[in-house]
Amino acid sequence: RRDTDTTTAERLLEHALPTLHRRVEQAGLTLDVDLPADVGVQACRTDSVALQQILLNLVDNACKYGRTAIMLSVRVHGHRLEFVISDGGPGLPASARPFTAFGKSKSDPIPGIGLGLHLSRKLARDLGGELEHRPQARGVSFALILPL
Questions:
Q1: Taking CA 95 as the corner, what is the angle to CA 90 and CA 98, rounded to the nearest 5 degrees?
Q2: Mean pLDDT across the chain, nearest whole number?
Q3: How far is residue 142's CA from residue 146's CA, in Å, rounded to a whole number?
Q4: What are the Cα distances from residue 56, in Å, to 78, 79, 106, 107?
Q5: Region of 82 on the Ramachandran plot (φ > 0 left; ψ -120 to 50 alpha; else beta)
Q6: Which residues 6+ apart lie within 8 Å of 95 measured at CB?
Q7: Does residue 81 contact residue 74 with C-beta atoms inside 8 Å?
Q8: Of the candidates 144, 143, 140, 141, which has an alpha carbon nearest to the alpha carbon of residue 92?
Q9: pTM score of the predicted model
């Protein structure tokens, strides 16, 4: 089990955003953040380092594959806090299995070994949460869900 601390959504983002912005800037892209004030004060018990690792993996994937502006929105849904990373890129092919270890095609020209989403989902579950792929008409959307 991970070291957890009770903190707010706003503090979690304050901790993660410098790293996320650096990655997005390296790719020449933008990161738009939507954190409503009423959501920012929501408290949850989590490991901020693990949360940052998951968000960085999602943003890194959006930089490599989506190559468009990236949106990070934070919402409360029931008793859950959701961090959603979306892009407007080409999306996942219908045959993709995003959480499968080594699910990456050998012909994929983008560097990586295909473990990021698999490990991120494991981290999310270690935190008592989940990582979900949310199909959309254009681009890709992943939600990191944590209990409040």
A1: 75
A2: 87
A3: 13
A4: 25, 24, 23, 24
A5: beta
A6: none
A7: yes
A8: 140
A9: 0.87
